[in-house]
Amino acid sequence: MATSIIFTSLLTLFLLSFVIQFSSNHASPTKQTLDLQNPNFFNPKLPPRTLSSSKKFEGSSNLVNLRYHMGPVLSSPINIYLIWYGKWTPSQQLLIKDFLLSISTFNHRASPSPSVAEWWSTVSLYTDQTGANISRSVSIAGEYSDFKYSQGNQLTRLSIQDVIAEAVTSKPFTVDHKKGIYLVLTSVDVTMQDFCRAVCGFHYFTFASKVGYTLPYAWVGNSGKQCPEVCAYPFAVPGYMGGGGPGSLKSPNGDVGVDGMISVIGHELAELSSNPLVNAWYAGEDPVAPTEIGDLCEGLYGTGGGGGYIGQVMKDRDGRTYNLNGRRGRKFLVQWIWSPILKACAGPNSMD
Description:
single chain; 352 residues; 7 helices; disordered N terminus
């Protein structure tokens, strides 16, 4: 009799736990952000059910074989030369420049943690064969506005070098082949080869036959009208996700296209600094299509990220989503970067 009662009780508990588990697995998806009372409190006590079931760093894997291939990294102070291609508003330009100027804290007061400068500290862990680290000094050394669309509004990977050549031959711009990197930003009405289909940005180096020097450069486009659901995710979500996935999140600065660009800019600058001539830090055996330190962490913005989830990030009082603080009170949502020390994706807003 006692055995029968015990068996019946165990069976009841089993059925009850099954029902609870089934219900939780089929509940409507929850927001992927923490609704914080204090927007500056970035490492709160985790709620009972979190996106991260373990304390491992997101993206960690023994299968990732990131190797150094003996090429240079950007160890000297980095001078960014901005090329604004197409039509840009002053507010859009200021937002991007505020992000770039938040990387280095040498010329202004440090931003609250988690900051853009702390995010860049992961990038600065990478060294060259002499042991020199990627520089933490990043400044905007010059700007050029190509508002007349010198190469038209349909660009290719090769014609982007003509855009750079046009800029460096102008009097206010300079060729800085020792410390300079060239960042080409195209406006919302400019198309680029493979844009939206395969890339949101890319980096490479110029050919001497085109520009006269080998200059590291990166290109990033404004996807605000062409494909925000691809290149400005999670501020826009693909239509096929419907009600089955997370809703779009409110961008931190109210401009979906430019807020989306900023994470891509961070991605490309990190890779350009650690692999400027495509012979330094990357995984895989093909230097033509390397897997770099940004690629390894694409789509990860916080603890618990992976499998389509961006991870635990923050909301300010107006519901805007971010994970990094910048200069002048700016907030940004920028993807994490692969850490050579942790052998995993990492960011200053980590809760692990």
